[in-house]
Design a protein that fits this description.
By secondary structure, the protein is α+β, with helices and mostly antiparallel strands. It is built from three helices and seven strands, in the order E-E-E-H-H-E-E-E-E-H. The two termini are 21 Å apart.
């Protein structure tokens, strides 16, 4: 699958589209076929590595530890882990998970919600803005 990645801090020029392995959901995760992802201030701060406390907080002082940008995502459930009870394949969901700028992403069940039928994937992806570092 294709995903946006970066291996050094800097301006948008550090972003690259690369072929990476499609993730498999853990027991409490959902595999999502990404239909939309939004950019928020957290993505920008992680990519730039500024202010310095961002680097210290995430453990990537010299180079980024999370190397796949994007946090806010909306898409369709492709598969679920064995312990997932709230979602099933085909469900339309939105929520938060690092690495959302990709064709597929896995997210913990408790970081997702069903997408309301009356909003688009693009609108749903603009909602979450997760600021926790455990996404």
């Amino acid at each position: 699958m294709k995903a946006v990645v970066y291996t050094q801090y800097g301006p948008p020029d550090v972003l690259q589209v690369k072929e990476v392995a499609t993730p498999a959901p853990a027991d409490n995760e959902v595999l999502i076929k990404v239909r939309a992802a939004s950019v928020n201030p957290l993505d920008w701060r992680l990519m730039r590595g500024k202010p310095l406390f961002v680097r210290l907080m995430l453990g990537g002082l010299r180079k980024p530890k999370p190397t796949r940008p994007g946090v806010d995502v909306a898409g369709q459930v492709e598969a679920v882990g064995i312990n997932v009870t709230q979602f099933k394949p085909g469900d339309e969901v939105f929520g938060a998970r690092h690495g959302a700028f990709a064709e597929y992403v896995c997210a913990a069940e408790d970081k997702l919600a069903l997408k309301p039928a009356n909003i688009s994937f693009e609108e749903a992806a603009a909602v979450p803005v997760e600021h926790s570092n455990d996404t």
